[in-house]
Write a structure and sequence with these properties.
By secondary structure, this protein is mostly beta strands. The protein is built from one helix and eight strands, in the order H-E-E-E-E-E-E-E-E. It has one domain: Immunoglobulin-like.
């Protein structure tokens, strides 16, 4: 479906590039990067991990973080994870419990 068609259903779009084409045509999305990181902590300690990404303009980018949790054996650890764009190529994540964190960086024009 053409991105200029105003009657499209974005829920039917199946690939990241199709979504980028549709959304990007309306609000100026330049790029989307996605990934996940497993942060292993030791009994509730705070731990920080960095992730290297393709260069973006931090002043025109948004970081979305989806925190998960990790189970090991009979125990589950719940905690929080936060993320920030440190510079053009670095994301920093901080967690209070062992977890798997999914992230997306959306850069705008």
């Amino acid at each position: 479906m053409a991105t200029g068609d105003k009657n499209y259903d974005i829920a039917k779009e199946t690939t990241s590039q199709e979504i980028l084409n549709v959304v990007g045509s309306g609000i100026g999305v330049k790029s989307i990067q996605r990934g996940s990181i497993t942060i292993s902590t030791n009994g509730g300690t705070v731990k920080t991990e960095n992730v290297t990404i393709e260069a973006v303009n931090p002043n025109k980018s948004l970081l979305l973080v989806q925190h998960g949790y990790h189970t090991s054996g009979y125990s589950s650890e719940f905690g929080s994870a936060i993320g920030e764009i440190v510079d053009e190529t670095t994301l920093k994540f901080t967690a209070t419990a062992t977890n798997i964190t999914n992230w997306q960086v959306i850069e705008f024009y």
